[in-house]
Amino acid sequence: MRALGIDAGLDPGLARELAARCQALGYHSLWANDAPGAPGLETLAHFAEGAPGLDLGVGVLPLQRYEPAAIAADAERLGLDPARLWLGIGSGTLSPQIEPLRRAVGELRDRLPGGVRIVIAAMRPRLCRLGGEIADGVLLNWMLPDGAARAREWVREAAADAGREAPVVASYVRVAVGAGAQERLDAMEGRYRTLTPGQAAHFAALDVPLGTVGVAEAEAGAVREGLAPYEPALDLTIARVLADSEADALAAVADAAAP
Question: Would the CA dihedral through 236, 92, 115, 254 be positive or negative?
Fold first, then answer.
């Protein structure tokens, strides 16, 4: 399955236009991140208007900024259909991580009945296994295909141990297209490589050159080939757009990464 992910805070008209395009292109779902001043659930509400047939995902709402009660209230206020919603949460800067996430999953299920799917952000074994034990999905980030495949095994092993069906394993894969594509991937990846000690350790373990954890292609026709290695490693590949928030730039990535 293929999804498209963008930065939250997109102009509502652009969000609706992009969503309609993605529905026509055959995407499974549309995803937005969340940032201070750019609420991800607000962007999902605009997507919902433009693409009534697509699932909607937010990835992720960090628990140091959001209480489960506030998340549920926002989803209800915005009229988001729980049956279409993939609600991603992450521990953010909380320490310890496991128990706050476990409690948040349970509380969100109680507050948002009706089929909402809870997704846990994970990059390391303990959180992958927690997702396998209790979540409906696990969202990876900044992974290479072999790392994604290994993480999915952790998730599946934990689900089997818990006697439940394995959750969906998804990952953001950054995609840049056209002139300056490699520079855009280099800049974004470079920022994340030093964003937090955890991110720095993650990239150090990857031990690959800058600008190789994602897909950057001058020619749109090469994007599907760049995404292909992720397909057997994941249940859902989310092509995360690296482009200006303009209609033509967004459409170029959506078209190039379409399933």
Answer: negative
Class of domain 2-175+223-256: alpha beta
CB 157 within 8 A of CB 174: no
pLDDT (average), residues 54-82: 96
pLDDT of 95 above 80: no
CB neighbour burial string for 220-253, b if at least 16 within 10 angstroms, e if fewer: eeebbebbebbeebbbbbbbbbbbeeeeebbbbb
CB 5 within 8 A of CB 32: yes
Domain definitions of the chain by residue range: 2-175+223-256
Summarize pLDDT for 69-91 with one digit per residue, the tens.
Answer: 999 999 999 999 999 999 999 98
CA gap 172, 161 in Å, rounded? 27
